[in-house]
Amino acid sequence: MIKKTPAAAGAAPAALPAGYAGIHSGIVELLGAARQAAARSVNALMTASYWEIGRRIVEAEQQGKRRAGYGEQLMERLSTDLTAQFGRGFGVNNLENMRRFFLAYPVSEISQTLSGKLDNELPDEKSQTVSGKLSLTELAQVFTLPWSAYVRLLVVKDNHARRFYEAEALRGGWSVRQLDRQIGSQFYERTALSKDKAAMLVKGAVARPEDAVTPDDAIKDPYVLEFLNLKDEYSESDLEAALIQRLEDFLLELGEGFTFVGRQRRLRIDQTWYRVDLLFYHRKLRCLVIIDLKLGSLTHADVGQMHMYCNYAKEHWAYPDENPPVGLILCADKGHALARYALEGLPTKVMAANYRTVLPDAELLQKELETTRRLLESRVVRQPKKLRQ
Fold it and tell me: Which is it for the CA torsion 15, 20, 25, 29, positive or negative?
């Protein structure tokens, strides 16, 4: 018979060694810095690759410029072939971004930038061969902002304004969120009109709490996930993830014809990324059912966004012989739950009425949402503090 040791018998664990807190915090800091460096490295190489792809597209277009529609044919064929071989990230829109990126940052400008970084190793007379002379690692030294930032900068039509935003983003270490906010608020124009430009620049460099980007955020950037061909299914919070899991199981258990399609499905409209929490297919209605979970109160913007999702899904996700998608907004605001179907976009009132008959009753969904949230919150409260950390 083997005699149990005190540890095996459930005795208290041994005391932590002296200085453990310092060791732990040091390792956390090291791993955080390593993740940030990895994200920066991937972003730089991705951006350099996309610039080079843009160069090759432009050169191919110029060689076939006498043929009508050559550019469109080239982009569509490239999109089809690259997507089949490398996965997401090579839609026509993104290829067009790469093309525009090269045109906004021509060879001569890249050569000049690299000349300063590489101690004038690239004479001006060789500037036209810069991309052929340099590896992607060397070319990546030019692009110090993430690709998502350059995509946002390409929306700025005025060259002076674009250079201003790029310079300020580099100088102030702006996140993409901060850059997007400054462009949206016309920070360049306001600074140009201001009598105290220095004060405006100082004020513009101040980041907000929501601007902070963690190493996980940088790695989960949708463009990075596309470039590495990784899945981008993740939730914003533990509560949201648990609610989605319960709702997914609940809808499938109803036995009303729901077929699971995906979770955290991303879509891009223009240069903005969105995601829907759950995507089902309803066999009887022969349509996609888009479900979006909100942890706050329902707003008009939420309703408009759902209609946008439905229109996008109808064009890009649904098959030609399927009925139009339907949206379901679930609001899990504390103390109040609400379920609302977005049926106004359906072609006929008869179809909308049929959908209401077949789909689960909204009150039933609200009751399940309230019950699930209370259950999850009670579990969190009952957990020992040590476990919740």
Answer: negative
Q: In the 8-state DSSP scheme, what is residue 339?
A: E
How far apart are the C-alpha atoms of 60 and 47, rounded to whole Å? 20
13-17, 92-96, 153-157, range with the lowest pLDDT = 13-17
C-beta separation of 40 from 141 below 8 A:
no
Higher pLDDT, 245 or 212: 245
| Kind of pairing between the strands at 326-331 and 287-294 | parallel
Share of the chain above pLDDT 90, in %: 7
Q: Return the H-helix or E-strand segment holding 266.
A: strand 258-269
The radius of gyration computed from the CA coordinates of the chain, to the nearest angstrom, equals 26
- CA separation for the pair 224, 230 (Å, rounded): 8
Q: Which domains does the chain have, with CATH numbers?
A: 31-105+142-170+215-227 (no CATH), 238-388 (3.40.1350)
- What token pair was written down for 310? 């439905």
pTM confidence score: 0.58
